[in-house]
Amino acid sequence: MVAENQAANLVGRIARNAVANYIGQFVVMGIGFLITPFVVHRLGDSQYGIWGLTGSVVAYLTLLDLGFSAGAARFIARFEGEGRRQEISILISTLWWVYCGLGAVALSGAAAVTLFLPHLFRIEPTLVQVACVTLLLAGLHLALHLPTSLFNAILVGEQRIDLNNVASIVGRLIEAALTVALVSLGWGAVALAVASIVATSVIAAVRRGIIQRMLPWLRMNWRSFDQHILRQVLSFSAFVFGLQVTGLIAFNTDNIVLATFLSAASITPFALSYKLANLLTQVTQPLVNVLFPAFAEMQGRKDLERSRLLFIEGTQVSTVISLLLGLILIFGADQILRMWVGEQYASSFRILQLLAFSNLTIAAVGSSSSNLLLGYGRVRAFFLITVGHAVANLGLSVFLVAPLQGEGVALGTVIPVSIANLFFIFPLGCRTAGIPVWQGYHRILWPTLWPAFFAIAVYTGLKLMPGMANQPLFCLAGMGLSYLLCYMLLSSGRYQSVAYLRRFRQAMNLKRGTN
Predict the structure, then answer these.
(1) What percent of the chain has pLDDT over 70?
(2) 447 within 8 A of 435, measured Cβ to Cβ
(3) CA 207 – CA 14 distance, rounded (Å)
(4) Hey, what's the torsion of the CAs at 474, 477, 478, 479, to 10 degrees?
(5) Which of 268, 311, 385, 409 could be 45's S-S partner, Cβ–Cβ 3.0 to 4.6 Å?
(6) Is 193 helix (H, G, I), strand (E, B) or coil?
(7) Average pLDDT, whole number, for the chain?
(8) pLDDT tens track for 1-27
């Protein structure tokens, strides 16, 4: 009976966290979607390109996290499942001092890069000072973010991601308001860095207050430092650090390649397409991110059967959601760019199509598999796969940027990323869950994929109808609706649809204090 109650509570927590994640994610995405056109047109291509370049440079400094945030969340979830709460307090106290030191290194690193920034990239002479100040402030933001990320790890490990979203929404609303105000005052790219610092401070304060109220047993003794626990976390976080390195090479060198071989202004159309394509992973993250601590807790309980079922359902749901949006982005790329940021950026629609397909493979088949592998600690093989696609990504992007420019960089991303997720990461996830690989493709992916072919046929038919060629939004909406209806009525089956509804009701009815 105790085991059944624990299982029911776990399923309810997963559903509740997923619903809360979607609410928070849609709020954050909506804010970004609304203010981006305003920021782009106020800053111009060059200054917005500087902000994109700053983000790519600082992204490498985030490697100083060393994988500790993911390691902390995993071990907190595992210790909670095993009833070892005292060790959670020791873990947090130990990592706090580690992160403070890493934050100081991050700020120093950003300051050092500013000395060489004008010599590394093609930045207009009049904007060099703006670029240096923006980068220095971004380094300060990272120095603040690193130690306070422990508050995020605590809430994730305790599977109170719903409360985590409260802090994020408050911070992002303040960031958006401050961004609009400072950009309107003419602060340029510096405004975005200042708004990020303020938002991170607010988010950290709110999370700290939630933790103190929710976990009165948690003791953060700043004088505690346990080498044994630190070594435990390092045994996992070292490989997560390797994954972070390869992820940065794969997804954050594009702007640097463009700035090195073309210009800072060439980043803007690419960055806008990437922001739209990234919606595919953003709409599935609220679901798949809650699986990581759940898988870690299930491993502690040795509940492989429930992990297998969760992996199957998580992959199918994330594939349906990402395909629904992915089809619209791929087939309506030019119209979406034209309506969002203006006619001058619609010509970069091929970049959006390529990046959308790349992110589609990540969101559909890679995300659930990645969280399963991390939750179960199978990071060695996962790391080797990401090394391969990161090296291929960088090499292809550099090779193709000269003849194809932005489209070449996007093509250099889509080829290795798609191959890695479809033919390496997903099969590894299936084997970890105890599912034959051929069954994974046939019973997990195929029921979600074949309705896409029907939806594309519907879209093509609508476009060929008299007068419909001038109604692209109607055709895109018809494609999306036909995919969803085809899947729900003909592919998923009534039992699966009822199961999803039952989990949603569990999320709504679960008591707030359930642990």
Answers:
(1) 90
(2) no
(3) 20
(4) 130
(5) 268
(6) helix
(7) 82
(8) 444 455 555 666 666 777 777 777 778
Q: Which residues contact 51 (CB under 8 A, 6 or more apart)?
A: 43, 134, 189, 192
- Distance (Å, whole) CA 444 – CA 435: 10
Statement: residue 148 has pLDDT above 90: no
Q: CA nearest 429: which of 285, 322, 312? A: 312
Choose among 242, 272, 215: nearest CA to 406: 272
- The pLDDT tens digits for 47-88 are 888 887 788 778 777 778 888 888 888 888 778 777 777 888
Model confidence pLDDT, tens digit, residues 221-251: 766 777 888 888 888 888 888 887 787 777 6
Q: Decide if 310 contacts 14 (C-beta within 8 A).
A: yes
Residue 28 has pLDDT above 80, yes or no: no
The whole-angstrom separation of Cα 80 and Cα 152 is: 16
Q: Which amino acid is at 474?
A: F
Judge whether 420 and 388 are in contact, CB under 8 Å: yes
Q: Which of 134, 131, 137 is nearest to 119 (CA)?
A: 131
Return the structure tokens found at 461: 């038919």
At residue 169's C-alpha, the angle toward residues 168 and 173, to 5°, is 115
For residue 389, what are the contacts with CB-CB under 8 A and spacing of at least 6? 246, 250, 416, 417, 419, 420
Write the CB contacts of 188 (distance below 8 Å, at least 6 apart in sequence): 43, 47, 130
Amino acid of residue 190: V
Tens-place pLDDT, residues 267-298: 888 888 988 898 888 788 777 777 877 787 77
pLDDT for 408 equals 92
Check: CB of residue 228 under 8 Å from CB of residue 215: no
- Rounded Cα distance between 260 and 54, Å, is 14
Nearest partner of 13 among 152, 150, 154, 157, judged by Cα: 157
CA distance 290 to 16: 10
* pLDDT digit string, tens, across residues 304-332: 888 888 898 889 888 999 999 999 999 99
> Which DSSP string do the residues of 351-408 spell out, in sequence order?
HHHHHHHHHHHIIIIIHHHHHHHHHTT-HHHHHHHHHHHHHHHHHHHHHHHHHHTHHH
Question: C-alpha angle with apex 510: 508 to 514, nearest 5 degrees?
Answer: 145
Please state, as a whole number, how many other Cβ atoms lie within 10 Å of the Cβ of residue 207.
Answer: 24
Q: Mean pLDDT, to the nearest integer, of 439-447?
A: 89
Count Cβ atoms within 10 A of the Cβ of residue 509 and give its class: 0-12 exposed, 13-18 middle, 19 or more buried.
Answer: exposed
Q: 112, 209, 119, 127: which is closest to 164 by C-alpha?
A: 209
Domain boundaries, the chain: 2-509
The set of residues, in sequence order, having a beta carbon less than 8 Å from that of 472 and lying 6+ positions away, is 332, 335
